[in-house]
Design brief:
Elements (H helix, E strand, L loop, with lengths): L4 E2 L16 E4 L2 E6 L2 E6 L10 E3 L7 H12 L7 E3 L11 H8 L3 E3 L4 H4 L16 H5 L14 E3 L13 E4 L8 E5 L4 E5 L10 H6 L3 E2 L10 H13 L4 E4 L5 E2 H13 L1 H4 L6 H4 L14
Protein name: MBL fold metallo-hydrolase
Pfam families: Lactamase_B (PF00753)
Keywords: Hydrolase
């Protein structure tokens, strides 16, 4: 059974979707849910061509919805300055190749994600034994073939900057994936956490459908290094974010967000880490040869 930390409903940050199909969180930050995953749009409405950035690239079949939202929000024909990835799991790069080609856009990611984005290798296999939910049991059927945007791939600079996003920095938050990153804007304490932590029980198809707000560690079936995942949550909790958008679940803000995130960090081993599992017994560390398998 997946453990969880309840969230005060007053901490929910999302507003009803606007006419462009996105939920506005900041004047220059909106998100859109695609079945089971969120993508973020960074840039003010009407930003125009190359005036905005897409964070993550949804699941297979979401291309038209993303293109339509971008056109409505930023202007017809408005291409992003870049696509920035928190990591390369299938539900975050589902239409990456199509969008990068259509928009002729560079793709920024952590160096440790490179094999999964240039066709060189695949992630370690999912572990369906953890999580206890239907999505966890289905995880061996999830797409594992790496995408290939090698000609457009740009590695995030070592200094933590994000070239197309002045004012934002990337933070290496491994555990769920070797090169997983979260995006942080200190000026207003806004966090795009990817899957470092999530706000729904992603293993459960019922929870994914209802989006009941709960604080969870990263999705269990694809997390390969639980010690690193715990440290990543501790790092993010120390930031004391005012607003957090995660890859799965509804965004949170304010004291309720911070309280739940600190509780997750303090009790991570008890509420997030499975009692048993392939990667509990044999973690795959960032940079290990085992982190990349044949595609």
């Amino acid at each position: 059974m997946v453990q969880q930390i309840p969230i005060d409903p007053g901490s929910l940050a999302d507003e009803p979707a606007g006419p462009d199909g996105t939920h506005t969180l900041r004047p220059d930050l909106a998100y859109q849910r695609h079945v089971l995953v969120n993508v973020a749009y960074l840039g003010p409405p009407g930003a125009g061509d190359r005036g905005w950035v897409l964070v993550d690239a949804g699941i297979m079949g979401s291309r038209r919805a993303i293109e339509a939202a971008a056109a409505a929000r930023f202007g017809k024909g408005a291409r992003p300055a870049a696509i920035v990835l928190t990591h390369g799991h299938f539900d975050h790069v589902g239409v990456l190749e199509d969008l990068a080609e259509e928009w002729d856009a560079p793709v920024f990611a952590h160096p440790l994600e490179r094999p999964y984005l240039d066709g060189g290798g695949a992630y370690p296999a999912p572990d369906p034994s953890v999580g206890g939910g239907f999505l966890a049991r289905l995880s061996p059927l999830f797409p594992t073939k790496p995408v290939d945007v090698g000609t457009r791939l740009r590695l995030l600079p070592e200094d933590g900057s994000i070239p197309p996003l002045p004012g934002w920095r990337w933070i290496h938050t491994p555990g769920h994936a070797p090169g997983h990153v979260s995006l942080w804007r200190a000026a207003d304490r806004t966090l795009i956490a990817g899957d470092a932590f999530v706000t729904t029980a992603q293993e459960s198809i019922y929870a994914v459908a209802t989006q009941a707000p709960e604080m969870h560690g990263p999705p269990r079936y694809l997390t390969v290094d639980w010690d690193a995942a715990r440290r990543s949550v501790e790092v993010l909790a120390q930031l004391e974010p005012e607003l957090a958008l995660t890859g799965h679940g509804r965004p949170l803000r304010g004291p309720g967000l911070r309280e739940a995130l600190h509780r997750l960090a303090a009790a991570f081993s008890a509420v997030a880490v499975p009692e048993k599992g392939r990667y509990v017994a044999e973690p795959v560390r960032a940079g290990d040869a085992a982190a990349v398998r044949e595609p």
